[in-house]
UniProtKB/TrEMBL annotation, chains A, B:
Domain of life: Bacteria
Family matches, as Pfam families: PurS
Record's keyword terms, sorted: ATP-binding, Cytoplasm, Ligase, Nucleotide-binding, Purine biosynthesis
InterPro entries named in the record: PurS, PurS-like_sf
Alphabetical list of NCBIfam families matching this protein: phosphoribosylformylglycinamidine synthase subunit PurS (TIGR00302), PRK05974.1 (NF004630)
Identification of the protein by name: Phosphoribosylformylglycinamidine synthase subunit PurS
Any GO MF annotation of the entry: phosphoribosylformylglycinamidine synthase activity
Record pathway: Purine metabolism; IMP biosynthesis via de novo pathway; 5-amino-1-(5-phospho-D-ribosyl)imidazole from N(2)-formyl-N(1)-(5-phospho-D-ribosyl)glycinamide: step 1/2
Gene symbol of the encoding locus: purS
Length: 83, 83
């Protein structure tokens, strides 16, 4: 069944404490090549049947209203993935 | 600067309470086209300079050891994105 993938990331100007914690932990584990880390969310919405333009528009709308907080987060990607 | 994107999702057999909460909330907001939702994580690791094979291998290793919990999560994607 097709899925719609929605990617949400904290806005660049917003502090991301989880990302900061990870970037602090990486060198302690021997991973020294990364200068910054941001943590966001990935949602997979399963659709019964075909993904129409209307369903994709619903997914974009849901991404902006339910899956992300537009004050602190950006929806950076909404795309269809065939299972 | 290039970034490495790491996508982590709960394993299919693992209960995902956040996804369940979202799939329950969607119809109340008028979004009726989605039969299930899974919520995972997306990480963006910024690399200073070029992404070599060695740095990509470090990212894959970090994804399995620090960015995901292999008991309940799968690393489903590690890819380079040019900024």
């Amino acid at each position: 069944m097709p899925r719609i993938v929605v990617d949400v990331m904290p806005k660049p100007e917003i502090l991301d404490p989880q990302g900061k914690a990870i970037v602090g932990a990486l060198p302690r584990l021997g991973f020294t090549s990364f200068s910054s880390v941001r943590q966001g969310k990935r949602f997979e919405l399963t659709v019964d049947g075909e993904v129409t333009e209307e369903i994709l528009a619903q997914a974009r709308d849901a991404a902006e209203t339910l899956l992300s907080n537009p004050v602190i987060e950006d929806v950076i990607n909404v795309e269809v993935v065939e299972a």
